[in-house]
Amino acid sequence: MAAAGDRVAGRRECRICWYVYDPAAGDPVWQVEPGTPFEALPPHWSCPNCSAEQSQFLAVEDD
Q1: Which residue, of 2, 9, 17, 49, has the fewest CB within 10 Å?
Q2: Does residue 20 sit in helix, strand or coil?
Q3: What is the DSSP letter of 9?
Q4: CA-CA distances (angstroms) from residue 54 to 4, 11, 15, 16, 50?
Q5: pTM, to two decimals
């Protein structure tokens, strides 16, 4: 279970090309349904813009 301050379902930004994965939008390139949290992406998913691995994504602070 996530702690109150964790951003489990938040947006993530690729630190290589700055692509932002937004769970609300999903990813049409990889056919990921809207509402899919970053943590639930399939293991083979990579950045649709530059092919960076999931480990290259950082949490985005929501203003």
Answers
A1: 2
A2: strand
A3: T
A4: 24, 13, 10, 11, 11
A5: 0.82
Position 16 in a domain: yes
Question: Does a structural domain hold residue 3?
Answer: no
Q: Which domain holds residue 34?
A: 10-63
Domain count, the chain: 1
Give the model's pLDDT for residue 62: 76
What amino acid occupies position 32?
V
CATH of the domain at 38: 2.20.28.10
Q: Are 38 and 57 in contact (CB under 8 A)?
A: yes
Question: CA-CA distance, 12 to 22, in Å (whole number)?
Answer: 7
